[in-house]
Design goal:
Oligomer: single chain
Number of helices: 33
Radius of gyration: 26 Å
Shape: globular
Distance between the termini: 61 Å
Number of strands: 0
Structural class: mainly alpha
CATH architecture: Up-down Bundle
Largest sheet: none
Length: 713
């Protein structure tokens, strides 16, 4: 048993501040290179949507990274530690299907409102501002709860590993994230996701091979299986078949699955960060991006829980365990300390450092997505939607900056309040669905059912929340005699609240719709109500274009360019996209049903119903399958993005070489000759104007490029 913390306080500050600033300035440098060599212009649209051009692989990376919270790593291992092998699988399966199911919502939203920035714009345009305000509450509540889990989980782990003051950790963790978001917007989030995911996967491989191949303490699936079978006899899990750690027949595991499904439907469908990724994605990247992201992500929680959650149970019996002769308490497990305790026992200080990096990477990548999501809501739904509908691009950028800083400070304060009140990561994770799940079904029906009326859209989630909270509190009182923190955290109590929250609007919404008459909404009207921000003038200024080159005054030039680009976009690009989206929507709907049946019914339920206890060979095969699956994850999120970005990487590297060798004029000439390689269509205007051509020729060039067979069109 060790005295004090595995690592010194300085290690905590070095990672939180030192590594945080290294990543921040690294992302800022990459963003600066993109602006110089790829002609990216940071406007309000670019800040929030990344030019709507993100590739399939980066969408997948964004899903994997954003969904790899501290909870993914810490709660999944805690579930395997608590409920056995089913706990980790139920976490992975119960949270991956939502990402794949969200592809259907994302495609539908792109179909009916191709120029939207947030899902709240669609709700407001269909039902009005009052309804928009209701769903703004649920969207912000989602972002707040997710951010709170990120902060509490990361700070608790860093405090455990280094002894770093928890409040100082809460203050300092978001600083680096805020810096690179302010400079690079949502594009910097995607790039950061890529880098962080590489580190996370490398550490997961290290842990897996340590537990199941090289560690002198464990070293093989067979040894782990033998020790778990012994533990099933000496320390059985209550509610599991024969008390086994190696069975899917687990009462508490099944309860967790339902809680997990309810909460994560809300955490994905109502998290504007996921909608933000679909907005930033190119049209053809939405379906494969989300499906590949969900398939790639599931290996992370299942393997880490099978490795470190079950591994921690075995390590507790050994003298080398960090707390030997006692094991972890239920409070320590709920706080997310299973992973770092197992890592330190296996690898000493190296394991502690790996855990520290793992949690830090998970925090920064997921937190950045939450901050950008909130900034988009504040900028486009609150400021532009209700305060200043005629806001210019510069005003929207200022609103973005204010919201990024303001939300971060608010979350730091909220995180301190949770810490002082003793609320754990596990409690927040299970409680999440009680608060936000009531809006899931009404929002989904907003996109798919033209009949749902305004009354149903407004009232059904509110009623759902009221009934869910009443049911949650009543279950604690009825089952355990009092309403207390511990009783409210009980599995059956959380199950009651989550089920009522998700399912009750399924009764209220249709009932209210038929009582107050169906709406019969025309979805095509959204295409004329929701528009991108006209920032043509800002783009001209950013590109140092003299409006006289267009033989027009500044206002006329901006309007002319905007109108002509709009006509081209609507008449050619959107028509082509509409045909593709109709096919993709059908495929997504059937694909969602298929993946749900596979991961929730066909694969696990036979093991649950048959009371099967894993044999040594089956357990070994289970471990090998998930290690191979993690190799697939590595290919999707590490190799594929490099392949898809090969042209951009080549262009940037060549530009850097030209700058360093004093041949920068070649870069300018190349950009004029190859405008189709530039990131935003508006930049093509700049490249052509600088070549001395009129706006009539510009439009002709863009027409030609749109007809060309290039990935950028």
């Amino acid at each position: 048993m060790i005295e004090g913390n595995p690592l010194p306080q300085g290690a905590g500050y070095a990672v939180v501040l030192g590594l945080g600033f290294v990543f921040a300035f690294g992302m800022m440098a990459i963003t600066a290179m993109l602006r110089r060599y790829q002609k990216e212009i940071m406007t309000a649209e670019e800040f929030a949507t990344a030019g709507r051009s993100i590739s399939t692989s980066l969408v997948s990376v964004g899903c994997v990274s954003s969904w790899t919270w501290a909870a993914t790593l810490l709660t999944s291992t805690a579930q395997a530690y608590k409920n056995g092998i089913s706990g980790g699988f139920w976490y992975g399966a119960g949270a991956s299907v939502q990402v794949m199911l969200f592809s259907a919502l994302a495609i539908k939203a792109r179909q009916i409102a191709p120029e939207s920035h947030t899902f709240l714009e669609i709700i407001t345009a269909r039902y009005g501002k009052l309804c928009g305000n209701v769903y703004t509450f649920y969207a912000l509540a989602t972002n707040i709860l997710v951010s709170a889990m990120l902060l509490t989980g990361a700070s608790a782990t860093i405090n455990f590993l280094t002894g770093m003051n928890t409040i100082a950790c809460l203050f300092l963790l978001p600083i680096g994230v805020v810096l690179y978001i302010l400079y690079g917007g949502v594009k910097s989030v995607f790039i950061t996701d890529y880098i962080h995911t590489i580190v996370i996967i490398a550490i997961l491989f290290t842990f897996a091979f340590q537990v199941y191949a090289t560690s002198p303490l464990l070293g093989s699936p067979g040894y782990v299986w033998e020790k778990l079978m012994e533990l099933g006899e000496t320390e059985p899990i209550e509610g599991n078949y024969k008390g086994s750690y190696l069975t899917f027949h687990s009462h508490n595991g099944g309860i967790f699955l339902i809680i997990n499904l309810c909460g994560n439907f809300a955490a994905v469908f109502l998290d504007s960060g996921y909608f933000q990724k679909s907005v930033a994605a190119s049209t053809k990247a939405i379906l494969p991006g989300y499906v590949l992201g969900g398939l790639a992500w599931i290996a992370i929680p299942v393997l880490i829980s099978t490795t470190m959650g079950l591994g921690c149970r075995v390590l507790e019996t050994l003298p080398e365990f960090i707390y030997y002769p006692r094991g972890l308490t239920s409070a320590e497990a709920s706080a997310g300390l299973v992973l770092p305790a197992a890592a330190y026992t296996l690898l000493g200080k190296g394991g502690a450092v790996a855990s520290l990096l793992l949690v830090f990477m998970a925090f920064t990548s997921a937190m950045s997505a939450e901050i950008v999501a909130v900034s988009s809501i504040f900028t486009f739904d609150i400021y532009k939607g209700q305060v200043n509908p005629l806001a210019t691009g510069k005003q929207l950028m200022l609103a973005n900056y204010i919201s990024v800083i303001g939300f971060t400070l608010a979350m730091v304060g909220f995180g301190i309040g949770l810490f002082e009140s003793g609320v754990s990561l596990g409690f927040l994770y299970n409680f999440m669905g009680v608060i936000i799940a009531p809006a899931v079904l009404p929002f989904t029906l907003t996109l798919f059912w033209k009949g749902q009326n305004t009354v149903a859209a407004i009232v059904s989630p509110i009623l759902g929340s009221i009934f869910a909270i009443i049911g949650w509190l009543a279950a604690a009182k009825g089952l355990y005699g009092s309403v207390s923190y511990d009783n409210l955290f009980e599995d059956n109590v959380m199950l009651t609240g989550n089920l009522i929250a998700l399912c009750s609007p399924g009764i209220f919404a249709p009932l209210l719709t038929f009582v107050f008459k169906q709406q019969n909404f025309d979805f095509d009207t959204l295409k004329t109500q929701i528009h991108r921000v006209d920032e043509s003038e800002e783009i001209l200024q950013a590109e140092h274009i003299d409006p006289q080159d267009l033989e027009l005054n500044p206002v006329q030039s901006a309007v002319t360019i905007s109108k002509r680009l709009g006509e081209i976009t609507k008449s050619q690009v959107l028509q082509e996209e509409s045909t593709y989206l109709a096919k993709a929507s059908t495929l997504a709907n059937w694909g969602c049903l298929f993946f749900f049946l596979v991961f929730i019914i066909v694969w696990p339920m036979p093991m649950f119903g048959s009371n099967y206890i894993f044999s040594k060979k089956f357990f070994t095969g289970w471990v090998v399958v998930w290690i191979i699956w993690l190799f697939f994850t590595a290919f999707v999120v590490i190799v594929l993005p490099l392949y898809e970005a090969r042209r951009g990487i080549y262009t940037t590297c060549r530009g850097i070489y030209w700058d360093l060798s004093g041949q920068s004029h070649k870069l300018r000439e190349w950009q004029q000759e190859h405008p189709e390689q530039l990131h935003v269509v508006q930049s093509q205007i700049s490249a052509t104007v600088h070549n001395g051509k009129s706006d009539d020729v510009i439009v002709g060039n863009i027409d030609a490029e749109l007809d060309s067979d290039t990935p950028e069109k």
